[in-house]
Design a protein that fits this description.
It contains 8 helices and no strands. With 198 residues, it is mainly alpha-helical. Helix 2 packs across helix 3. The chain binds a DNA duplex (21 and 21 nucleotides) through helix 3 and helix 6.
Length: 198
DNA sequence: AAAATAAACAACCGCCGTCAG
DNA sequence: CCTGACGGCGGTTGTTTATTT
């Protein structure tokens, strides 16, 4: 299931770009490289580090998983609440929302919201009446290009408070969930990179 | 116990704004 | 001034994992 070697790399260098899930080895390379050289200029970094990845891919991997200060999983009830509140006033400004949740990335928040919050809001969103007979079960978040009510950076307008009632009837995950690991976990990867310090 | 279905998650894609050459 | 590389962002999809039937 590896289609890279077979191709006759006649035209130039075929730029074998890897895609899909990152392997531990790749993670290590990236972590180690950044530990020794720092971030910046991702495309160059990818090449210099010897990774067959695009700069974007490296950046994403680093920012979302490998960075030492990223927190993953186990969204606390407080965080969930914050996500909901911020989303209520800013819409799908994931990156902006993420800035208010230390350690959390926009991608994780986005995933979390879409997979766990959105449906609840929908179901808790009664409005059966309303003079809008059409599209009532529409994900009101899809219309992203309408949430540009920004004023500055702190307090924005637009607080539909539509979540007010929603919050109460929320399942809210248990905070102290099994903090088990998946594989080495980034910490282990970091300790491993110590052995390879340039 | 197995199959079907749903949920969660990781990563990619295209678009856009910025900036250097 | 124009052009292209780069990085950031949000939407979306593919795959894995959990839950239900």
């Amino acid at each position: 299931m590896d289609k890279k070697g077979g191709s006759s790399s006649s035209s130039s260098q075929e730029v074998e770009v890897r895609k899909g899930p990152w392997t531990m080895e790749e993670d290590l390379i990236l972590i180690n490289y950044i530990a020794n050289h720092g971030e910046g200029v991702w495309n160059t970094l990818a090449r210099s580090a010897g990774l067959k990845r695009t700069g974007k891919s490296c950046r994403l991997r680093w920012l979302n998983y490998l960075r030492p200060d990223v927190r993953r999983g186990n969204i606390t009830p407080e965080e969930q609440l914050l996500i909901m509140e911020l989303h209520a006033r800013w819409g799908n400004r994931w990156s902006k929302i993420a800035k208010h949740l230390p350690g959390r990335t926009d991608n994780e928040i986005k995933n979390y919201w879409r997979t766990r919050i959105q449906k609840h809001i929908k179901q808790a969103e009664p409005y059966p009446r309303q003079n809008n007979p059409h599209e009532l079960n529409h994900n009101e978040a899809t219309s992203t290009s309408n949430n540009i009510y920004e004023v500055g950076d702190g307090m924005e307008v637009y607080s539909p408070s539509s979540y007010a009632g929603t919050l109460e009837a929320f399942p809210v995950p248990l905070p102290t969930e099994s903090n088990e690991n998946f594989w080495p976990s980034v910490e282990d990867l970091w300790s491993m990179q110590l052995l390879n310090n340039d």
